[in-house]
Amino acid sequence: MAEEQRVILEYADKIDPKKADDYIKVGGYKGLEKARSMDRKALIDEVKKSGLRGRGGAGFNAGMKWSFVPIKDEDRYVVCNFDEGEPGTYKDRIICEKNAQALLEGMAICGAAIASKQGYIYCRGEYPFVVKMLREAIKSAKDSGALGDFDIEVRMGAGAYVCGEETALIESIEGHRGEPRFKPPFPGVAGLWAQPTVVNNVETFACLPYIMTNGADWFAGIGAAKYPGTKVLTLTGDVENATYFEVPTNYMLRDVVYKLGGGVKGGKKFKAVQVGGTSGAFIPEQNLDTQIDFDSMSAIGAALGSGAVFVMDETRDIVDIVTRISKFFEHESCGKCNPCREGTWRCREIMEKINAGKASQKDIDNLMLLSRVMKNAALCGLGQAAPIPIDSTLEHFGYEYSRKIV
Amino acid sequence: MSNYTDIIASCQGKKGGIIEAFHAIQEQYNYIPEEALKEAAKHFGIPEAQAYGVATFYSYLSVEKRGRYIIRMCESAPCHVAGADELLKEMESILGIKVGETTADGKFTLELTECIGQCQATPVITINSEPHFDVNKAKLAEILASCK
Ligand SMILES: Cc1cc2nc3c(=O)[nH]c(=O)nc-3n(C[C@H](O)[C@H](O)[C@H](O)COP(=O)(O)O)c2cc1C
Ligand code: FES
Q1: What values do phi and psi take at A356, rounded to 5?
Q2: Structural domain of residue B20, as residue ranges?
Q3: Are strands A308-313 and A270-275 parallel, antiparallel or unpaired?
Q4: Which of A177, A243, A324 faces B57 most closely, judged by CB atoms?
Q5: pLDDT at A220
Q6: Which CATH number fits domain A318-402: 3.30.750.24, 1.20.1440.230, 3.40.50.1220, 3.30.70.2570?
Q7: B130: Cβ–Cβ under 8 A, 6 or more apart, which residues?
Q8: How many of the other CB atoms lie within 10 Å of CB of A360?
Q9: Which residues of chain A are under the pLDDT cut of 50?
Q10: Which helix (H) or strand (E) holds B109?
Q11: CA atoms within 13 Å, Cβ hemisphere of A83
Q12: Other C-beta atoms within 10 Å of A399: how many?
């Protein structure tokens, strides 16, 4: 199996994402109609049964998340995480640029499940042209009547990676600094303006119309049993075909690089691939025969994350790249918690020392200790994941470090 | 040029809309002037210090005056391996400024950014938010020349 399987992107470039009518002609908004005809509990059960898990990185069962939302007098919100800050990732942009209406329909389906009438899309500030397009798409969907009384507002981020963390994102929509909150309470109970809120990724929402129209069993039958469906991947770095693909989740990582990716650029040899963006682990050649689904990637100490696939050829200097990555985390740390604020700073300092050929084994030992502290003590996923590129390269590419050590 | 009171007022109905207001102000002025920041704080009913805290948290927002063309160079890993460093050096030498600075004529400001989600065509720069793809030295000269 080396073919793409397009579900979300089936009509890419064949329909105008801004126009609800285009989408309706290819079967759009039928899923929402069905969702609205169902009892709320039955709807959530259907989504649970499909096995759909979050596409934003944490892999949580979507229907399960919705089922935690208490239905009382207060307002509830549906929030779409379109912060897409993980370097090497642009799949949510592609989904919007090719099939924005599916995202809107998915959010409205979630609205039906948790009895919410208001949705927000939090789009990163780097995509002002997508924001514009989404606003037109929403207007078209509203005018066509397809969304009914469900409203969607687009809010723009302003260049902060940490705002992809769901509680920081909520803070940002509220007009504050994007610093993560302490959990619990989780957003499902007290989220936006302290009201129950579901936060899901763009791709998670965009799967829902297809689950509703084709049925939970159909979706559950695609790809890996425990993380079913398709996944949109973005290939970057030293591959021939640096572009996006939609594949079933039981697709093999080796095929991503060699079949879809067309292999390493310029006929060079493969050195490493980093999956899931900059916070992902570096994967060596011997682990390429792994399925890309969430659990298979976890089993090799890596993560599917956002679905970014960054390929490095034999000439790449791993220590130099990890040094660059450590600067990313230092820059993006919000500074709220000490382990992350100081830790990312020290990681960058030590990595630069190693990269400059001025470090000793003692520095590496300190780095490993620091990594343990950050993984255990940082408040949010940013500080917890920041040392992963360091740890995984020390494990699989230790010789690259040894040769720079004095 | 509309004044900032109007710009801010147009966002006032939005709950938590101060970041939207900042975006709108920046669209006009390329940065957030101190007076505008004070005005926004008043409109949204928060202390100036808090409004300042918000404006300075986000890398896309600036409280310092900037040039008419804001050039941002992506330095995330995929762009890094595609030669972002050399391109940055080239840019610094053509413009005669370092990262974070503005040319004396107030035309260009040079900034670094992390991934801007256009990694299909690395290295990438943006000029006033518009992305330019697969940038090399020759292309860079062309792009800069097109900024009037
Ligand atoms: C530092 C950090 C950055 C994140 N960035 C994103 C992001 O850009 N997009 C996203 O969907 N989720 C991101 N997440 C995950 C969200 O916190 C959250 O788990 C997700 O939006 C839930 O949606 P899902 O269940 O549909 O995946 C990030 C998490 C952390 C800790
Ligand atoms: S890494 Fe430069 S645009 Fe994504």
Answers
A1: -85, 0
A2: 3-57
A3: antiparallel
A4: A177
A5: 98
A6: 1.20.1440.230
A7: none
A8: 12
A9: none
A10: strand B108-113
A11: 25
A12: 9
The pLDDT value given to residue A405? 95
Give the type of residue at A356: A
Q: Quick one: angle between helices B34-43 and B48-57, nearest 10?
A: 120
| Coil, helix or strand at residue A138 | helix
Q: Which two tokens stand for residue A291?
A: 């399925």
Chain A, 28 to 67: residues with Cβ < 8 Å from chain B are none
Atom of ligand 2 lying closest to residue B123 CA: 2
Give the integer Cα–Cα distance in Å for A64 and A79. 16
ipTM score here? 0.96
DSSP letter for each residue of A342-366: HHHHHHHHHHHHHHTT---HHHHHH
| List of chain A residues whose C-beta atoms are within 8 Å of the C-beta of residue B111 | none
Pocket test residue of B75, B118, B134, B135 for ligand 2, highest count of atoms within 8 A of CB:
B118
Return the SS3 of B12: coil
Q: CA nearest B147: which of B98, B87, B91, B79?
A: B91
- Could you tell me which CATH number the domain at A230-313 has? 3.10.20.600
Could you please report the per-residue DSSP string of B126-143? Answer: EETTEEE-S--HHHHHHH
List beta partners, residue A53: A61
Does residue B63 sit within a domain?
no
Pairing of strands A308-313, A230-237: parallel
CA distance A107 to A111: 6
pLDDT at B1 > cutoff 80: no
Do residues A349 and A363 lie in contact, with contact meaning Cβ atoms separated by under 8 Å?
no
Cβ contacts of B22 on chain A, cutoff 8 Å: 158
> Phi and psi at residue A333, in whole multiples of 5°?
-60, 130
Q: Which of A131, A132, A109 is nearest to A121 (CA)?
A: A131
CA–CA distances in Å: residue B28 to residues A82, B3, B25, B32? 25, 9, 5, 9
DSSP A21-87: HHHHHTTTTHHHHHHHHS-HHHHHHHHHHHT-B-SSSS--BHHHHHHT---SSS--EEEEEE---ST
3-class SS of residue A397: coil
- A318-402 shares the fold of A20-220: no
Query: Is the model's pLDDT at B147 over the cut of 60?
Result: yes
Q: Is A291 helix (H, G, I), strand (E, B) or coil?
A: strand
A198 in Cβ contact with B41 (< 8 Å): no
What's the fold here for domain A20-220?
Rossmann fold (3.40.50)
| Chain B CB within 8 Å of residue A334 CB | yes
Q: Which of B73, B77, B83, B74 is nearest to A322 (CA)?
A: B77
What's the pLDDT band for B2 if we cut at 50, 70, 90?
A: low
